[in-house]
Amino acid sequence: MDREHITGWIDEKRAKLLATLPTILFFIALFWVVHLAFGETYLLVVSPYTTLFEARFGKYNPPGQYLRFFLVSALALVAARLAVTGPVLCVLINLCVPFILVYMRSSQLNPRRYFPYTMLFAFLELRPENLIETFPTQAAVLATSCALLSAVLVVAGLFARHGRRARASLHENIRRLADDLDRIAEGGVGPILSQELLQVRREIAELAYTAREDSSAPARVANLLDMLATLAQRTAYLTGSLDWSARHAEQHARCLRELASLTRELDAALEGGGNAEACQALLPRARALLAETRISEDRFRVFFRSYLNMVVLILRTASDPYQRVWHLSPANRARVVLFRKRPTLDSFEMRFSLRCGAVLAVSCLSNLLFPVDHLYWYVLHAFLLLQPFPDESSRRMRTRMIGTVIGCLFVHALALLNLGWVEITILGMILIAPLYASTPGSITSAFFATAYAVSMASVSIDDAYATSMRIASLVLAIATVALVNRLVCPTSDRRLFVANMRQMLDMVERSWELVRTTLDSRVDTVVTSETLLHFQMVHSRAAGFVESLGQEGEKNAEIAELAQYKDAAQRMLFCLWELMCELEQLELLVRLHEVRANERRTFEKIIELAQANCAPERFGTSVDEAEELIFKLSEADLRYVLQQYVDRAGELRLAIDDARGALVERPSYMDEVRG
Predict the structure, then answer these.
(1) Which pLDDT value is given to residue 555?
(2) Where does 243-297 have alpha helices with state H?
(3) Low-confidence ranges of the chain (pLDDT < 50)
(4) Residue 214, pLDDT score
(5) Taking a C-beta distance cutoff of 8 angstroms, is the pair 532, 237 a contact?
(6) What is the model's pLDDT at position 553?
(7) C-alpha span between 212 and 215 (Å, rounded)
(8) Which pLDDT score, from 0 to 100, does residue 334 have?
(9) Count of CB atoms within 10 A of residue 662's CB?
(10) Helix or strand holding residue 25 (H, E)
(11) Rounded Cα–Cα distance for residues 201 and 208 (Å)
(12) 3 state SS for 191-226
């Protein structure tokens, strides 16, 4: 390695250390606050709160976030207290709490969102005596930690202005969307631009999803991001079949330039938090375009009208100073939650919450029943080794074992120096810096974690016992996590892909229910936006897996089996995406009262036929019966969207048949265990 590479490596490590400096300083500050105020037996909560600080430090934190720190901490404390009451409650509570903290908080896009609070719950159980004998003191420790966490984040937020960063991302993507509309006007939607539109849709959807799911943007900005994600979705609708022949090209180009210009003016009107007068002044132009433009080509007309309707909604929302921030009613919140998460074993979140509960139940019960000094390291190792994706767990088993052994050798050598309490404590504070600057799950991270934990423990126990206990508890944790991953809801890449495919088909069925609901009552735009965003997240995960099929086929027999159906899988994903596009457009048309009163029964019959044929085993088998009903509807846009749905449903049926069900059939439990 030459000098240039060494210099680059040093600069990279220095930059990473500086980036994690706030986290390091927070750990040290909280460590000494808890140590001096309450004693060293309560120091185990420092790591969970530091992890929580690390997760929230670079994000916008709404006022409700600080209340959430206290409320969820209280929930974790009460649950941990009940868990250490006895063996039966220990098992039950450790099985139930992950359902709340893992199932409800994590998703495939953000699988580790469960981590800080679940870590707090698990770490509170590490010392049962703190919960049984000195519960008020333990509660005071948590309250103090939450107060310090909140205070530091408030001060950091005043300087960082994360809300402005979220708004800057909003404007950047609005301008990007306008540029893409101009590019389409110049040359139509070719393969390269088609990929760009889909990429824009995906990136904006992830931004909007994260802003809403993680509370990482002010509420009004999150609303605008939701609506922008819908705009991007409707623009990506152009990547479907579209007539760009000479007789339509000129009109399409003119309309697209109008939309691009309007989108840039929208960006300017929203600048600086939203200029109500500028938004109000732009509304007549958007409404005039909607009312006066006549377009003959069906797909482009549907896109043009739906795009303008969303622009009008954005302008109306931004121009009204009394416009309420989107808040879901209890009924609509239930719709969104049920759309995102269903208590089924097809769900990624459900499978992981069950594995997490099993690991915590076994390890925490052992820690409760056997009074072995520092056996709580078994719980700690098991919790940290368990990861949402089993492959990551396997990798961490290797890296943590290597890092732990090296760390124990380091501490054993350190014992020869006969350091006192002060020297060991100073060393521990020094070791914290590279620990948090290391990549989580790496050998380096495991080394510094072991060096810190064992050196601090050697103050009160013999270093030989500490090192042997650290390694023994890790071996026990590896065995536990390996068995749970293999036997309790095993989640292979194939199993997850099949689950995602079935979940998307289920979402199509539930979207028909949303269309039916819109016929009878007002459904907030945010409900449609949230359901669409979640579908896009699941679709992106499935698409990523399909893209990797050719690369992993030689390494994994299970993946190789699916690789032969890669073409069918790609067609399935395309059809599913198109189906959700049509359903989103259909829901908008129903909201705009395109279904006439005398045709309502016909439309309801179409819904019944479509919804009854959404299961993977029969998808699209009888939907063509609805075609003769579709021709009875008066509105051209309604007929077009429904006909597109029928056509895509038929294509999807063929793709499922071509794959002989391999893409949607659940593997048996024995296949999963053997896999």
Answers:
(1) 54
(2) 246-270, 276-292
(3) 553
(4) 77
(5) no
(6) 46
(7) 5
(8) 65
(9) 17
(10) helix 21-38
(11) 11
(12) HHHHHHHHHHHHHHHHHHHHHHHCCCCCHHHHHHHH
What's the CA gap between 63 and 150, in Å, rounded? 10
Tell me the pLDDT tens digit for each residue of 602-625. 998 988 888 888 887 778 777 667
Q: Under 8 Å CB-to-CB from 375, ≥6 apart: which residues?
A: 366, 367, 469, 473
Q: Measured between alpha carbons, how far is 188 from 197 in angstroms, rounded to an integer?
A: 12
The dihedral built from the CA positions of residue 337, 338, 340 and 343, taken in this order, carries a sign that is positive
Which amino acid makes up residue 408?
C
- Note whether 455 and 428 are within 8 A (CB): yes
SS3 492: coil
Amino acid at 32: W
- Length in residues, the chain: 675
Neighbour-count burial of 334, counting CB atoms closer than 10 A to its CB (0-12 exposed, 13-18 middle, 19+ buried): exposed
Nearest one of 490, 491, 502 to 665, comparing CA atoms: 502
Answer for the pair 23, 436: CB distance below 8 angstroms, yes or no.
Answer: yes
Estimate to the nearest angstrom the gap between the alpha carbon of 587 and the chain centroid.
25
Any alpha helices (H) in 438-522, and if so which ranges?
A: 443-457, 463-487, 493-520
Going by the DSSP 8-state scheme, the letter that residue 103 receives in this structure is: I
CA distance 638 to 590: 9
* Distance (Å, whole) CA 207 – CA 214: 10
Cα-only R_g, the chain: 28
pLDDT at 246: 63
Q: Which of 423, 418, 430, 495 is nearest to 463 (CA)?
A: 418
Return the closest-CA partner of residue 504 out of 668, 333, 348. Answer: 348
DSSP state, residue 271: G
Instruction: Name the residue with tokens 């009262």.
Output: 593
Q: Which residues contact 164 (CB under 8 A, 6 or more apart)?
A: none
Token code pair at residue 562: 């699916």
Tokens representing 233?
């979705």
